[in-house]
Write a structure and sequence with these properties.
The chain is mainly α. It contains 2 helices and no strands. Keywords: ATP synthesis, Cell membrane, CF(0), Hydrogen ion transport, Ion transport, Membrane, Transmembrane, Transmembrane helix, Transport.
Length: 173
């Protein structure tokens, strides 16, 4: 049945040869389908699945990176807010301490001023008392020189008191 495959010039292919080639082609296609088509389609499907998974993975990674960038921006903004808060708190505490120190200094100045005024008043009173004693001594001496005689103690005391009252009224006016 197998015919000779010779093509004679001018004569076409024989019908048997064409039928043989067609059957061989169909058998070859069937064998390729059984042996190669399934593994090739499986390989192509696996490759398509891998590419789809890689695309999905890349999309997830991009979304995670965007999320991390947003979180980093939020953390940076929060740290700026916190730093600003710390600086403003420090300024506020500094102003409070300054106000406290100024108030304490003013209080100390008032105390010192009050003590100085008391000391001045005490010194004035002491000076007046010393002046009264000196005036009394001088008055007695002057009076004894003027009168040329010794006064009695009661007369001396009365003379001194009147003289001191005159000096006190003179100093007040």
């Amino acid at each position: 049945m197998l015919a000779h495959l010779t093509i004679v010039p001018g004569v076409g292919l024989a019908l048997g040869d064409m039928l043989f080639f067609a059957i061989c082609f169909i058998i070859l296609m069937w064998a390729i389908k059984l042996v190669a088509w399934k593994p090739v389609t499986k390989m192509m499907q696996d490759r398509a699945d891998k590419i789809a998974n890689d695309i999905d993975s890349a999309e997830q990674s991009r979304a995670e990176a965007a999320k991390l960038a947003e979180q980093r921006q939020e953390a940076l903004a929060n740290s700026h807010k916190e730093a600003t808060s710390i600086v403003s708190d420090a300024k506020k505490q500094g102003q409070e301490q300054r106000a406290s120190l100024v108030a304490a200094a003013q209080s100390d100045v008032q105390v010192l001023k009050s003590n100085a005024q008391k000391d001045i008043e005490q010194e004035r009173q002491d000076a007046l008392a010393n002046a009264k004693n000196d005036v009394a001594d001088l008055s007695i001496e002057i009076a004894s020189k003027i009168i040329q005689k010794e006064l009695k103690a009661d007369d001396q005391k009365a003379l001194i008191d009147s003289y001191i009252e005159g000096l006190g009224k003179h100093n007040e006016s």
